[in-house]
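Weekly sync notes, structure subgroup
Attendees: PM, AL, DS (notes)

Item 1: joint prediction request from the bench team. They want all four components modeled as one assembly rather than separately. Inputs as received:
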Amino acid sequence: MGRSQLLKGTTTLLVLAVLREGELYGYEIAARIRERSAAFIDPGEGWLYPALHRLEAAGALEASWRESGIGPRRRYYRLTRTGTRMLEAEASEWESFARSVRLVAGGPADA
Amino acid sequence: MGRSQLLKGTTTLLVLAVLREGELYGYEIAARIRERSAAFIDPGEGWLYPALHRLEAAGALEASWRESGIGPRRRYYRLTRTGTRMLEAEASEWESFARSVRLVAGGPADA
DNA sequence: CGAACTACCCCGCGTGACGATGTAGTCGCA
DNA sequence: TGCGACTACATCGTCACGCGGGGTAGTTCG
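Output from the run, pasted for the record:
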């Protein structure tokens, strides 16, 4: 039950980051995050889709339905200009925070 | 409102980490965290004291009141054996998580 | 039925405002 | 000058609130 809370605040970054490469649909976004994190982060549907909606509502993402031909329709998401800026902001925010934690947790004399 | 949620799950690590050097009282713990993080992390009393109590109840910390002679009484906390182990666990958990985030957010071809 | 996606409620815990206690320092006023 | 009132600050604490991840059931379509 350790990292259960760690995710808070990073989901936006994670989602936006994998979308940097281009359009992806929900299921695929989850898969990318899982792969990239070496299965350490396993996106639950419970927060992934709400996160996508938040980001879409915030103007960071644009979405469009598309037939897959082989299965249900898929909703593809892509970064908007706003989303790209948000990604950069989130990334640097995370960087600062992670460094701070490292400074505190790293001990008295270390980097 | 960026880093608002990032703290979640790291408070235990932060508190235990600064106590690695020896006994400290609450107010001082907050100050240490603030200093070490270059003021990036500013511990709120609203989570610091509850966290201390949680950790004490969990057997990770031992506490004792002590007169300071110059001001209100202080409650000094120190790590127990359990707390040390918990610190190590939290630290490695954080490390893994941080690396995962970096892997995902770092982009397609980068470390 | 199963893949892709949605909706909804639960709840831990950080947030911010506030309070209580204790000491030192300052200022007023005779 | 002396002494109490009043302020400033250190220290510990509580509480209501809200965000957002967790879990899970529901929906649609092939």
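Discussion: The CA atoms of residues 21 and 49 of chain B lie 19 Å apart.
Action: AL to compare against the crosslinking data before next sync.
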